Amino acid sequence: MKLILGLGNPGPEYHNTRHNIGWRVVDAFAAKFRIDFDQHEKNARTGRGRVAGGAVVVAKPLTYMNLSGDAVKGLVNAYEASLDDLLVVYDDIDLPLGTLRMRPQGSAGGQKGMLSIIRHLGRSDFPRLRVGVRGERYSRERDLGDYVLEPFSRAEKEPFEDVVARAVEALRIWISDGIDAAMRSANGQPSSPDGASRPD
Fold first, then answer.
1. Which of 93, 84, 32 lies closest to 65, judged by CA?
2. What are the chain's domains?
3. What local confidence, expressed as pLDDT, does residue 146 receive?
4. What is the dihedral sign for C-alpha 88, 91, 94, 96?
5. What's the confidence (pLDDT) of residue 199?
6. Bridge partners of 48?
7. Among candidate residues 123, 132, 52, 149, the one with its CA nearest the CA of residue 91
8. Active site members
9. pTM for the complete prediction?
10. DSSP characters for 94-149?
């Protein structure tokens, strides 16, 4: 069984913000594979289905971003999930919008939801899909917290929709063919709004 979690904040005021792109990806994934978020368990909305012949649970923690680890640990324990079968989708301000990075393990990179997850699990060796949210108007002089809680602009609609679709496909490949194949799919270098991407 695979357990896919998208990080974000509950509430309509956060729906279209950069910080909620993890939720948007798992929403799109669930819609494509006809999975309903019809359960409320371990401080998360969850849904169950089958993708590529395997059982999948998708989840959106309801704890707010900075406390994501509480829900993730509860779900990992409830489903007795191997960390190899856990994948977390979340926003990354260091990557331009339009960029994906899938890795089998790694640090939190300053993302507070991931910091909470790593602290609760006591480990960082689990797959993750980082989705770039840095737009061309981003400035280092701006408050980071304000920026990630800002909605995407109209000009960003097309690259946003494209990266969400590619993220959904990367998740499907991870389920069907494993992490190496998913990394090859996700980690290409598409065009991006500011013309650059972090090599990491």
1. 93
2. 2-186 (3.40.50.1470)
3. 82
4. positive
5. 38
6. 57
7. 132
8. 19
9. 0.90
10. EEETT-EEEESS---TT-HHHHHHHHHHT---S-EEEEEEE-TT--TTS-HHHHHT
Structural contact between residues 41 and 75, judged by C-beta atoms closer than 8 angstroms = yes
- Tell the residue number behind the tokens 């998208």, with chain if given: 6
Q: At 4, is the secondary structure helix, strand, or coil?
A: strand
Strands (E), the chain: 2-6, 39-41, 44-51, 54-61, 86-96, 100-103, 128-134
- The alpha carbons of the chain give a radius of gyration, in whole angstroms, of 15
Specify the pLDDT at position 198.
Answer: 40
Contact predicate 30/36, CB 8 Å:
yes
* Tokens standing for residue 23: 């939720």
Give the integer Cα–Cα distance in Å for 9 and 64. Answer: 5
Instruction: Please report, as a single letter, which amino acid is at residue 94.
Output: D
8 Å CB contact between 75 and 42: yes
For the chain, 200 residues long, the average pLDDT of each consecutive 10-residue run is 96 92 97 97 96 96 95 96 96 93 93 95 96 83 79 91 96 96 85 41
For residue 11, the SS3 value is coil
